[in-house]
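Why does this matter for the project? Reviewers at the last site visit asked to see concrete outputs rather than summary tables. In response, this paragraph embeds two records directly. Each consists of the residue sequence and, immediately after it, the corresponding structure tokens. Nothing has been edited or filtered.
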Amino acid sequence: MNATLQGNLAGISALLMWSAMIGLIRSITDAFGVAAGTALIYSAGALALFLKNGIPRVRGMPRTYVFGVGALFLCYEMIFSRAIALAESPRQTLEVGMLNYLWPCLTVIFSIWIRKTRLRRLVWPGTALAAAGLCWCVAANNGLDLDGFLHNLRATPLPYLLGITAAVTWALYNNLSALCSKGENAVAVFFAAIAVILWAVFFIQGNVLHVPGWKALGQLALAGVIVGFSYSLWETGIHNGNFLFLAVCSYFTPAASMLFTSFWLNVLPPAGFWGGVGLVIAGSLLCWLAGIEKRGSPRKALRR
């Protein structure tokens, strides 16, 4: 199996794990509390990666990757978690999440300038269709309420600003990590840094950690493995796999997440969900066609 195929499989595995772990993470935060649960998940993720791969040799890694790109990783996690925390209602939480799910489209667009990816003009209608499909999928339970969205945006703009900032940050991270890492994987170090920051904030605020029971600890161990391995696999995917292919596949993350959650909770997805999936598929196909090299042109669009 060649390195590109292994990278693609790693990236797809990460996307599937991200889609399936929402319910588990919710169980952890319900059991330990949001602040402690989030810190514990990152701690468990870092520990799982350290046990599997050992402690990474940071000194041998490019400084631009460890400090510059690593700062983007930390910023994304902090910004998005803050955006969700500031949402004042379940509806706002959904809308902020919808803005964050624009990162796959932004990843493809940013690759044109950052990675010099050569794409046909089909990428623009493809991206628009995929973005519309993502919004449709995420809003399927409550319908597309543009007036309500604009009202919430005017009333409390900060969580929405943070949500779109998070999407831009993660799209930049994906492109710059693939460009600057030189094959290194420092996700375990990034996780450990986030855990240290979260625990510092947790104890500075005077919080006390409560352990609810063995069941919650077992769920925490499982969440640590899934979260840690998924981010590490994604890092491997964008470094070694077909970057454009994985970026297009990531369009399906929110739809797959909702589908997994529906099966987990034994609830049928709403009828409107499938219309959104159709738009995502159409947009993804157009973006994929935009990346196929023109006859007689240099093979640059599909390079890693």
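We now turn to the second protein, recorded in exactly the same manner.
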Amino acid sequence: MAPSLRYVIEFVADMDRAVGFYRDTLGFAVRFESSEWSEIETGEIVLALHPASNANPAGSIQLGFTVADLAAAHRNLTDRGVRFTRPPARAEFGGMLAEFIDSDGSRCSLAEESGS
């Protein structure tokens, strides 16, 4: 089964300002908020905000996909020529995560769906 696009990560220079913009100016509900990760309800796709860094400058975007079985998806996509820059491993948030490069060199994340 193909991965599902579940979230878009925007790297931001100022978390409070970014959350305020999406909440107060655009009127979206905030699902979760912290200094390192905030989630904005936008419908089926979550807008996740993460602090910018040298590797991810403010305003840059990363697509986040989910799959039911990360190990199987990793094997399948590797066999299809997808270049992973981070193999499946437990991430800081506690879930399983991998990262790959798309056809234009953009970083994408691939996470295992949590039980829902």
